[in-house]
Design goal:
The complex is a heterodimer of chains A (95) and B (484).
Chain A (H helix, E strand, L loop, with lengths): L4 H10 L6 H19 L22 E2 L9 H4 L6 E2 L2 E5 L4
Chain B lengths: L3 E2 L4 E13 L36 E2 H13 L7 E2 L2 E4 L9 E4 L9 E6 L5 E13 L3 E3 L6 E5 L6 E7 L6 H18 L11 E10 L9 E6 L2 H20 L8 E5 L4 E4 L12 E2 L6 E2 L2 H9 L5 H11 L4 H8 L2 H11 L4 H19 L10 H12 L5 H14 L4 H8 L7 H14 L1 H8 L5 H12 L6 H13 L1
Helix pairs in contact in B: 2-3, 5-6, 7-8, 7-9, 9-10, 12-14, 12-15, 14-15
The chains are: A alpha+beta (95), B alpha+beta (484).
Chain lengths: 95, 484
């Protein structure tokens, strides 16, 4: 599968990764190679093989509906670049 | 069929609703943080909810049970295997950068809801699916110019997204759908249905077409938080789309917001590419597998739902469709009514609940659970009418006294105030004689063939006895005396 530069630019933007225009062509080539490599898996007939959801044969663990507590607010917002009155604050985002 | 008259002919409006219903649970969907509403900002947040590196989600089994219960209440297929996916987008109140949701394999599949429309008509609306997902945090835009404040208390709370088929054709039907869904959720105890607090929010999909033609391009109106606003948004949006098409334009598929202060919708500024959510199975979570027996146990424990209760009220209690519909709409009302009607005449009890009780509740702005007159007290009051102790008119007074004073004992109020009905014909006869003697003109009018005067006489006697005379006895004696 071959990715073009526009697709790579779009993926980068969706992932909020800044990619200089000059790097797009090289990245498109590398990503296309990775996809080609993965696509080899399509050569295997897996019609009768159930999907593997985990490397260990285990089931999803459930928890009880019990409140085990919240983290201290100071810890929750400790890494915030900005905070006010116990809120995180960011530059205005408004629809 | 509800059609809209345009400038160039008739149009049909097609509506589908996505309802986000907050699951009633003590802890969040994937963490042990509490779900309490109205707490101080960022005090109900675990490190999982704040998306701290290395934190892993562990599913709350009760939230799963609540989703299954809701699915069963919507007569829907339960998928014994479902999968959690990551829905990727960036927004400041979504610390993970993705929402854990379900995309191709939701926990609940197709179901249906029956709507009660005006005139006793019903209509079935298809449910496409119900899936479990995390709520995001809350953004506050109005606390400071130039800044948005983020509170993550709601982050990670369990939501059920309930998606309807595009089966609704008018704002009224959309309103009826939300009210019915809310009622079912409240009966099931899976969502409190509180739209003001945001426990129930609607995304509304609207398109228009010529009757019988293929579906038109739809617009999605996001996050509408009252039935009234949903209806206003639909009316506005349908008219807007019809105007565009009739002017030769084309509808652009887009996401819009409803502005309640202007009663109109406008496009969101978000670019279309942000809708590229790049769903993929969440590698932190294995498939959600349910045991068929466990599902059957939940099914066996479902309460009687409004639809079944309404049918029973009509069949067993002989109520009409309207009364039954009103009484079952809220679980608390139905429970109150059933407690009053236990062993009593259902129609009389329905009249009391829907008449005097509802009027008093409305006036006081109270919910039925806050009524100062309990179901047992109201029942005892109705018994006093049935056994002839008091008239219905006096009963209304007693009801008002109970409401005002909080007294629980109707019989005590009747005894204390001496309100017992006078059925003793001797006493009533004496009053009648007095009134007849004092009003020869009216007597002559009656004898002259004016039947209406009888009502005036009854009124006079009721007044003289302070409403305590038994009206039937009064009527009998009065007619006999006037005929003399």
């Amino acid at each position: 599968m071959s990715l073009d530069k526009a697709t790579v630019a779009k993926i980068a933007r969706l992932a909020r990764i800044k990619v200089p225009d000059d790097d797009l062509a090289a990245l498109a080539g590398e990503l296309s190679n990775i996809l080609d490599w993965i696509e080899q898996l399509n050569e295997v007939d897996t019609r009768d093989v159930p999907p593997m959801t985990h490397v260990a044969a285990m089931k999803l663990k459930w928890r009880q509906d019990e409140v085990t507590g919240a983290a201290p607010r100071d810890d929750v917002i400790a890494n915030a670049p900005e905070e006010r009155d116990g809120f995180f604050t960011v530059p205005k985002v408004l629809e | 069929m509800t059609l809209i008259e345009g400038r160039t002919g008739e149009w049909e409006c097609v509506i589908g609703l996505e309802i986000h219903a907050q699951v009633i649970s003590k802890a969040k969907l994937f963490s042990g943080a509490p779900t309490d509403f109205g707490a101080e900002p960022n005090t109900q947040v675990s490190f999982v909810d704040a998306a701290m590196p290395g934190m892993l989600p562990v599913i709350n089994g009760f939230c799963v049970e609540q989703a299954v219960r809701t699915g069963l209440g919507l007569e829907a297929e339960i998928n014994l295997t479902s999968v959690f996916d990551r829905k990727n987008y960036f927004y400041p109140d979504l610390p993970q950068g993705y929402q854990i949701s379900q995309f191709p394999l939701p926990i609940v599949g197709k179901g249906s809801i029956t709507l009660d429309l005006e005139g006793g008509e019903t209509r079935t609306i298809g449910i496409e699916r119900l899936h479990l997902e995390q709520d995001a945090g809350k953004s506050l835009h109005d606390r400071e110019p130039g800044a948005t404040y983020i509170d993550l208390n709601r982050s990670g709370v369990a939501l059920m997204e309930i998606v309807s088929e595009p089966d609704m054709r008018s704002a009224e039907e959309a309103g009826a759908y939300i009210r019915k869904l809310r009622s079912i959720l409240r009966y099931l105890g899976t969502c409190d249905g509180n739209m003001e607090e945001g426990s129930l929010r609607a995304d509304v999909n609207v398109s228009v077409r010529r009757p019988g033609e293929d579906l038109g391009t739809r617009c999605e109106i996001k996050n509408v938080n009252s039935v009234r606003f949903v209806q206003q948004a639909i009316e506005y949006e349908a008219a807007r789309q019809i105007d565009i098409i009739e002017d030769g334009g084309v509808i652009a598929q887009e996401t819009r917001l409803f502005d309640p202060s202007r009663g109109e919708t406008r496009p969101m500024r978000t670019k279309e590419e942000s809708h590229d959510y790049r769903y993929f199975p969440d590698p932190d979570l294995l498939p959600l597998e349910l045991d068929a027996e466990w599902v059957a146990d939940i099914k066996a424990s479902l309460p009687e739902l409004p639809e079944a209760k309404k049918a029973r009220f009509m069949a067993d209690l002989d109520l009409d469709a309207y009364d039954a519909g009103v009484l079952v709409a809220e679980r608390e009302t139905a429970e109150y009514f059933e407690a009053v009607a236990e062993g009593r005449d259902a129609k009389a009890c329905a009249n009391w609940v829907m008449g005097d009780l509802f009027a008093a509740l409305n006036k006081a702005g109270l919910g039925i659970n806050e009524a100062p007159v309990s179901a047992a007290s109201l029942g005892a009051l109705i018994d006093l009418i049935d056994d002839g102790t008091i008239s219905r008119r006096i009963a209304k007074e007693v009801f008002e006294t109970m409401w005002r004073t909080g007294s629980k004992d109707a019989a005590a109020i009747v005894a204390e105030k001496g309100l017992e009905q006078i059925s003793d014909s001797g006493a009533i006869e004496a009053e009648i004689d007095k009134v007849i003697a004092a009003n020869p003109g009216q007597v002559a009018a009656f004898k002259g063939g004016n039947e209406k005067v009888i009502g005036w006489f009854v009124g006079q006697i009721m007044k003289a006895t302070e409403g305590k005379a038994n009206p039937r006895t009064v009527n009998e004696i009065l007619r006999r005396k006037l005929a003399d």
